[in-house]
Each structure stands twice: as C-alpha cells, then as structure tokens.
Amino acid sequence: MRCYFYILYSKEANKFYVGYTCDDLSNRLQKHNSKHKGFTGRSKDWVVVYSEIYSNKSEAYARERKVKKWKSRVKIEGLVRGG
Predict the structure, then answer these.
(1) Distance between CA atoms of 61 and 13, rounded to whole angstroms?
(2) What is the CATH number of domain 3-80?
C-alpha cells in the first residue's frame, strides 16, 4: 500500500492544508477542489506543494499529526521550501 502525507496551498485563500491519504494523490486533490462543505471546499485552486510517500496508513497519519501540532505557518512554509 502506498500512502501520502501532503500539503496543499490555495493562492485564493492564502492558506495551507495538511493531510494524508492512501488513495491516489491526484484523485484526492480533485476531491479537495470539488464543491463540498469542508475546509478545502471554500476554494477551488488547491495545489499540492509538498508530499511524502509512506508504506502504510499509520506512518502517513503520524506525520500529518506531527505537522499539524506545529500550528506554525512559518514551519510549514519552511518544509515546503525544503528547509
């Protein structure tokens, strides 16, 4: 199984979204850009700006939780830039 930890960015909203999926990443991105009531449903210009591949769901989810605990846009921007 191939799972992903990923970070999306919306220029329109000027926001990042941190998540994980064990689905195909391009399919997941399409869902984020579709009309829905969730956080990413407010904008339609989400793009993947960073991703990591994991061999199982628990590792991808753990990475998502770790980054979300940062609660820091600066740290997320640094990760996206490769720092």
Answers:
(1) 25
(2) 3.40.1440.10
What is the rounded distance in angstroms from the CA atom of residue 50 to the CA atom of residue 23?
16
Contact predicate 3/21, CB 8 Å: yes
Q: Which residue has the tokens 């989400």?
A: 46
Residue 30 token pair = 């399409």
Backbone φ, ψ for residue 35 (5° rounding): -75, 120
Question: What are the boundaries of each domain within the chain?
Answer: 3-80
pLDDT digits 0-9 by tens, 48-77? 999 999 999 999 999 999 999 999 999 999
Q: How far apart are the C-alpha atoms of 61 and 8, rounded to whole Å? A: 16
Could you read off the pLDDT of 23-38 as tens digits, one per residue? Answer: 999 999 999 999 899 9
